[in-house]
Amino acid sequence: MYSEEPDAFDDEEVKLLSQLADDLGYGVSTLKMRAEKETSDLALLESEQRFRAIFEGAQDCIFLKDRSFRYTLVNPATEKLLGLPASKIIGLRYQDLFGEENADRVRDLDTRVLEGESIEEERTGNINGVPMTFLNTRIPWRDGQGNITGILSISRDITERKGMEFSSLECDAAYPSKAMRATLELANAVARNDSSILLLGESGSGKDYLAKYIHDCSHRAGGPFLSVNCASISAQLAESELFGHEKGSFTGAVARKRGLLELAEGGTLLLNEIGELPLPLQAKLLTFLDTRKFTRVGGEKEISTSARLMTATNRDLKKEIEAGRFREDLFYRMNVMAITLPPLRERLDDIPVVVQEILATLQSTLQIHEMPIVDRQVMSALKRYDWPGNVRELRNVLERALILSHGKRLELEGLTIHRGGDPAAKQGTGEDQAEFSVSFPGDQSLNEMTKELKRFMVNEALQRSDGSRQKAAKLLGISRYSLKHYMKTLGYAEDE
User: Fold this and answer.
1) Range 58-157 classified under CATH 3.30.450.20
2) pLDDT tens by residue, 431-462
3) What is the pLDDT of residue 365?
4) Could you tell me the residue ranges of all domains in the chain?
5) How far is residue 8's CA from residue 422's CA, in Å, rounded to a whole number?
6) Using CB atoms within 10 A of its CB, is residue 204 exposed (0-12), middle (13-18) or buried (19+)?
7) Mean pLDDT across the stretch 113-122?
8) Which of 46, 77, 45 is nearest to 63 (CA)?
9) pLDDT of 250-268, one tens digit each?
10) Would you call 291 helix, strand, or coil by DSSP?
11) How many helices and strands in the chain, by DSSP H and E?
C-alpha cells in the first residue's frame, strides 16, 4: 500500500508561517476593531442627535449644573422662559438669576442630589412678574464610570393644571377681635421657622385656614400645601397615604406610589385630627420627626424630605395619652409650638371679615359673577348668633342663603330663620328670650348702636308675629303707625 507523508517544515519555514499568521491575525483584529469603533461612533452620533433633538425641542425647561451649582447647559425653553440667551446664563448660579430669597432652599436640594438623591417637587413663584407653578425634577448627572458630576433638572409648567390657585390670604389680615389678633400674631412668629406646630380648637373653628395662613406667611409659600384628615382614611391605607408604597408591596399595589410626605417636598403637610392616627403609624411618624427620613411600604431605601409637618386636633390629647390611645413621646415631639384657635362665638366682632372671606370663596365655587350684597340687617343677625358649629356652620348658612337669593342680595329669609336654628337668636335660650350685644368701645356711634337696637327689636317682633305688623306692634307696645314710622326710618322696603 502506497502512502506518502508530507515533508516536514524546516525551522525557517515555521518562522515565516508564524510571522504570516501573526500579521494576518493583527490585520483581522485591526479591521474588526476599526469596524466596531465606526459602529460605536455611529451609534454615539445617533444618540447625540436624538438627545439634541429632545433637548432643543422640549417644551420643558432642561438644564445642567456642575458640582459648584453653576449652570453648564440650558435648552431653548429655558432661554425663552428667562428671556436670556444661553451665553448669559451659563456660568451663573441660581441666586444670580433669581436673587437670594430661595437660594438656601435650592442649594440644599442640589446638595441632596449630589449625594445621590432624586427629588421631585412642585413650586410656585413669580417669573418676570407672572405667578407660575412648576413641577421640578432633579436627578444626579453621572459620567461613564458612574461618578456624580452634576445635576440634571427638568421643570414642567403646570400652572394651567393647578387652575391658577394661588394664595389669596394676607399675612397682615385685619381681624377686629383681640382673640384673633393675638392668634395671628403668634402664627406670624412661628411661620418664620420650621418648628413643628400643633393647632388646637373646636371642630369647624378654622384650623385648616390657620395652617394655610402660616404656610403662606412662611418661606415655604411657593411650595405645596397639603391637608389630610386622619379620621377619613382607613387604618389599612393610612401608612400608604402618608409614606407611599412600592410596587407589589401589597395586593393592589400595581405601581410605586409617592406618599403625602414626598408630595409635600418644599411645602407643608397638615395632619388634621391627628388623634385618630393608629398607634403603629404614630411610632413611624415619630421616627420621621426625629430623623426627617422614612421608608415606603414594602421599600428598603430611606427617603428624606424637607416637608414641614403641622398637626391639628379638637381632642384633649393628654386624656388620649392617659387612655393609651396616643403616644406621649409623639405628643411632646409635635407640640413644639401650640396655637389654640378661638371659637367663633368668642370673636363675633370678626363676623363681617369672615363673611366677606367666605363669600369670596363661594363666589368662585358657585360661579357667581358679582360679589353678593350683605345688608346690615343680615350682618346684625349673623353677629347675634353663638355659632356652635363655628366657621363651618357660618359657611353652610351663607352658602344656603346664596342659593336661595340666586347669588344677589342676601335676605333674612334666606338664612333659614326659625327658633332653635335662627342665626338671629341665641341658641339655647327660651322662646320668649332674645339677646342683643354691642362692643364698647366700638366702631359705631351711640346713634348707630341705638338704630341697630331698634332694628333688632323690630326684626324680633316681626319674626315672632310671622310678619304681621299689627301683632308686632302689640308685642313692642306701640301703635301700628309708629311701627310703620320705625320701619321707614330704619330703611325697610315699602313691601316689607
Assistant:
1) yes
2) 445 555 555 555 566 776 777 777 778 877 87
3) 81
4) 10-57, 58-157, 178-342, 345-489
5) 123
6) buried
7) 93
8) 77
9) 888 889 999 999 999 999 9
10) helix
11) 18, 14
pLDDT in tens, 386-403: 888 899 989 888 888 888
pLDDT for residue 46 is more than 80? no
- 169 Cβ partners below 8 Å, 6+ apart? 212, 213, 216
CATH architecture for residues 345-489? Orthogonal Bundle (1.10)
Residue 466: is its pLDDT beyond 70?
yes
Cβ atoms 341, 213 nearer than 8 A: no
Distance of CA 289 to the CA centre of its chain: 19
Amino acid at 28: V
C-alpha cell at 28: 483581522
- Round to whole Å and give the CA distance between 143 and 254: 33
Q: Please state which of the four CATH numbers 3.40.50.300, 3.30.70.270, 3.40.50.720, 3.10.310.10 is assigned to the domain occupying 178-342.
A: 3.40.50.300
* pLDDT, mean of residues 121-136: 86
The maximal CA–CA distance of the chain, rounded, in angstroms, is 157
